[in-house]
Amino acid sequence: MFKKFNMILIVLLMIFLIYDAFFNPHNKQTLNEIFEIKNEPIEIRFVSSWGGEDNKSGILDQVLNEFNSKHPDILVINESMSGEDFLYNLKTDFASNHPPDVFGLWPGSDLEKLIELGMVADLKPIIESDQSWGQVFDDDIYSEYLSKEHVYSIPFELIYEGLFINKTILDRYRIAVPENFEDLANAVKRLRSFNVLPIAYNNTPEGSYIYQNIVASIGGVEIESDELELFEAMKIGADKIKYLYDLKAFPEDAFMLDDYSRDQLFRDGKAAMIVQGSWFINEDLGKNNEIVFIPFPYDESNKRLTYGLGNGNFHISSNCYEDESRKDAAILFLKYLVSKESVLKFDALPGFISSLEMDSPKTNQFVTAYFSDVAEHVKPVDHLVDRSKWERHIIFQFPMMLEGQITVEALLNELKH
User: Fold this and answer.
1) Which residues of 247-270 are buried (b: 16+ CB within 10 A; e: fewer)?
2) CATH number, domain 162-299+363-382
3) 3-class secondary structure, 262
4) Angle 288-307-382 (CA atoms, 0-180°, nearest 5)?
5) Rounded to an integer, what is the distance from CA 370 to the centroid of its chain?
6) Are 266 and 250 in contact (CB under 8 A)?
7) Rounded to the nearest 5°, which phi and psi values hold at 180?
8) Are 343 and 356 in contact (CB under 8 A)?
9) Residues of each domain in the chain carrying CATH 3.40.190.10
10) Model-level pTM?
């Protein structure tokens, strides 16, 4: 009898505890924590060259943090990096079957190879299924890049290259802003007579922008579709660079300088000029009224501006696209990354231009300078040639050509094969 009584008490006590646990409002949070099944967020790996020292890295972090906050079920992991390591690591990821989910890559042979191997997703169905998304892009950009049968890239960042000039230095020695190549050569001679470094240059892919701009200025848009025209323009351009080198237009240690040191020569006022791109224009440079930007001066009657897509040319890997859960997350992120909301943040950079149709286009000395006077927009030369040949043969052998150890024909011979 006593045992039965104890059993009844135990049962009543358990009923009371269970009732208290489930119906006492103070215990509901604890129970939710116990029984709630927490789903881990879907991870999306994102890679671009907008990391490290790149002027867009801070804004990119802000955009990604806001996206992650608005979409707690998705976690975008930013593995962007600046400099020459970016392309090497991206290609290594694809080669080792560990591609990023969303990535940025400028047009050219590397992107074409990935597309040829089936490693980049065709986003045309996404654009067709969401007409409102396609309509945010500028009409010219849409017709050139997004209205094709297959769309592998979402163009977001438009870049331009040209000659940045410290006008204070030129004014000090009574040198006019050059209108053509002869003016530029005369400016180099005069600056050297006063022991002033004329042009910040080094022997790297980025340092070669001066060569690329000369080639684009010589050949014009014909080089985009005619290999013979491109090759001829490269031959003449190499001779012109050799001429500037013989005038001592470049630093004595140009073949040893890294990209950062080259840029600092101009930023610190130690070089009068530099050939660079729109991404070079940071906030400090944007506020500096001493700095003038012009298309590379070759022919004053026919100005040509190097102009195209930058690393803000975004893609989804096929590996991600074939995974339904990651595919939807990647598309949602990509749309946010290239949204007008995102553009307004990147637009804080003085040199940034997006491909989106904006109600109030940006106007400043760098965006508008000479643009209305440009005869042609020419794509960057390293978008037109095989990049491995460009870096391993052209850039690698450039010092030997400049020092007269090999001919221009020998420098460019690899492009014929």
Assistant:
1) bebbbeebbebebeebbebbbeee
2) 3.40.190.10
3) helix
4) 110
5) 23
6) no
7) -150, 180
8) yes
9) 42-158+310-354, 162-299+363-382
10) 0.84
- Quick check: helix, strand or coil at residue 399? helix
Return the residue matching tokens 């106007």. 363
One-letter identity of residue 405:
Q
pLDDT tens profile 360-410: 666 666 666 556 678 899 999 999 999 889 988 999 999 999 999 999 999
Residue 78 pairs in a beta bridge with 46
What is residue 19's predicted lDDT score, i.e. its pLDDT? Answer: 52
Q: What are the CA-CA distances from residue 61 to residues 68, 345, 355 (Å)?
A: 10, 11, 21
- DSSP E strand boundaries for 324-391: 353-354, 376-378
Residue found by looking up tokens 């990651």 in the block: 326
Dist CA 6 CA 230 (whole Å): 98
Q: What is the pLDDT of residues 219-254, one digit of tens each?
A: 999 999 999 999 999 999 999 999 999 999 999 999
Question: What are the residues whose beta carbons fall under 8 Å from the beta carbon of 283, sequence distance 6 or more?
Answer: 348, 349, 350
What's the mean pLDDT in 89-94?
94
CATH architecture of 42-158+310-354: 3-Layer(aba) Sandwich (3.40)
Beta bridge partners of 166: 291
Question: Quick one: how far is CA 81 from the chain centroid?
Answer: 11
| The predicted structure's pLDDT at residue 284 | 79
* Confidence at residue 134, expressed as pLDDT on a 0 to 100 scale: 74
Tokens of 408: 């221009």
